[in-house]
Amino acid sequence: MNEIAPKTLRQGHPLDRAWVQLLILLTGVCLVPFGWFRGHVAPLIIESGINSLLLSMAATIASWYGLERLRYFAYSRRLSYVLPITSLSFGIAALAIGILRIPYSLVILLLTYLVTTFLNFTFAALTRASIPKRWLVPGGRINEIYEVIGPEDLLSIDQAEALLEEGGLEGSIIADLHFSHPVAWEKFLAEAAIQGAPVYHYRSVLELYTGQVRIDHMRENNLGSLIPNLTYLSAKRLADLVGSLILLPLLLPLFAILAAIIRIDSTGPVFFRQTRVGYRGKTFRVYKFRTMRSRDNTDPQVDKINDVITAENDPRITRVGRVLRKTRLDELPQIFNVIRGDMSWVGPRPEALDLSMLYESSVPFYRYRHIVRPGITGWAQVNQGHVTDVDDIARKLRFDFYYVRNASLWIDILIVMKTVRVMTSGFGAK
């Protein structure tokens, strides 16, 4: 099945072709030092210029590829990520220069960075400016997509045949491909594909726009399709460990400052410990900075669940705790869980043991989210925020399944960038 981008230029427009964008980017990057070389002929200067040009080209290709991959994820506003992705690519190039200790030209690096950023912004704006026509084929569960694409794009068989005859079938076709359509519609779908129109299963489009994967019945949802890339998960575990060991010494001074502030603000321990359910359903002790006062125990049967649920404007939250929760700094001690292998930096958020047992009894396939390591930040957290009731948990589970199906470096990068937005805006905090 074709990959789907939520917003693109009119189908067939040259600038919507990835290779055209890359060619323009590389041409722009190569033209920058052209005049510079003409006035500088010293061997060392030429060598530094060539080194800078090659690294700039590599960074440009990396930024182009990263932005191209991100456009296929839900909630990935490509325009918003041009600057961080381009800056990250050129930052890695600068790091390579420092490690290799090779001569370089700061002027060329800066100019090529500016050109690449400008062109990436231009392409992102153009692809955002126009949405291709989407035609819906009636039948089956196509009505489920009305929440993201209105029924006004629903075709009649007469319209479909007229479009084929006129050769005006631009855009994409969306249908329930698991439904047995009448012969006339089967012929239309086949002819549309022959004419070059992409044909998508409605669920693929729905998942793209909502960032959620639904599992309703074992019969019609192959859980095997949700098994993540095991090779990537192994590499990710190594990256988690190495990254945590590098970050830990840098975070320790911040930990000491926050610990002192927490002790001054309210009585009680600095750290909060809780049993949660993690990878493959195994329990572990999670660590957080304490942000709440202890609840007065009254009815143990009620408190067993209520103690692990944070309500809106919960009176137990301390003054410092409110800031820590809004900025997500209370989660930082979980770096020790990452080092131990209990968690990853990115993945579905782990739930408290009692809540997990409650949700397993109420939400179908809830336990399947434990197929990957839980994370300090996750796809559901950055798109939905804090949830408490069962209906919200069902939606959160669909976000988790979307992450499991699409687990890759690119969605992890997207989640990290969204996490920065969450930390600065306080989105979803309680």
From TrEMBL:
The chain crosses the membrane at residues 18-37, 49-67, 79-100, 106-126, 241-262. Residues 236-423 form the Bacterial sugar transferase domain. GO terms for biological process: polysaccharide biosynthetic process. GO terms for cellular component: membrane. It holds the Pfam family Bac_transf. It comes from Tsuneonella suprasediminis. The keyword Plastid does not apply. It is found in: Membrane. Belongs to the bacterial sugar transferase family. Coiled coil: none annotated. GO terms for molecular function: phosphotransferase activity, for other substituted phosphate groups. Keywords: Exopolysaccharide synthesis, Membrane, Transferase, Transmembrane, Transmembrane helix. It is a multi-pass membrane protein. This is Exopolysaccharide biosynthesis polyprenyl glycosylphosphotransferase.
